[in-house]
Amino acid sequence: MTAERDEFLTGGLVPLTCRSCATKVLVKKNSPQHTSIQWITDAATSCPVFAERVAGGVHPGLLDTCERLHASIAEAAREGVFTYG
C-alpha cells in the first residue's frame, strides 16, 4: 500500500524551474485544467512573489498561486513538457 500511495503522491511529477525567478518545483498536469504543484523549497522564501505577499501580512498557508510560476507552467505545457494522466 505504501508503494501505491507514493505513486499517487509523486508519480508523474516533472521538475520545472520558474522562468521568472528560477524557483524549482515539481509539477504534474492531470488535465489541461488541473495542475498539481509540489514545492521543493519553502514557497514563502524561495518565490519572490510569495515572499512579498508574506511580508505584506498574508499567512503562507493562504497563498494560492504565483502568477509567474503559473505562466511558466502554461508555457511548458504548450511546449509539450507534460503528459496528461
Supply the key terms.
single chain; alpha+beta; 3 strands; 18% strand; Ferredoxin
Topology:
Elements: H1 2-10, E1 14-17, E2 24-29, E3 35-39, H2 43-46, H3 48-55, H4 67-78
Antiparallel strand pairs: 1-2, 2-3
What does this structure look like?
With 85 residues, the protein is α+β, with helices and mostly antiparallel strands. It has one domain. The protein contains four helices and three strands. A three-stranded antiparallel β-sheet has the order 1-2-3, with helices on one face. β1 and β2 (24-29) form a beta hairpin. The longest helix has 12 residues, at 67-78. The radius of gyration is 14 Å and the shape is globular. The two termini are 20 Å apart. The model has no long low-confidence stretch (mean pLDDT 88).
- Largest sheet, strands/sense/barrel: 3 strands, antiparallel
The domain count comes to 1
Strand proportion, as a percent range, falls in 15-25%
Number of strands: 3
- The helix/strand series, from N terminus to C terminus, equals HEEEHHH
Mean pLDDT: 88
Low-confidence stretches: none
SS element count, helices: 4
Q: What Rg do the Cα atoms give?
A: 14 Å
State the strand order across the main sheet: 1-2-3
> How far is the first residue's CA from the last residue's CA?
20 Å
Helix amount:
25-40%
What structural class do you assign from the helix and strand content? alpha+beta
Protein name: Ferredoxin
Organism: Saccharomonospora marina XMU15
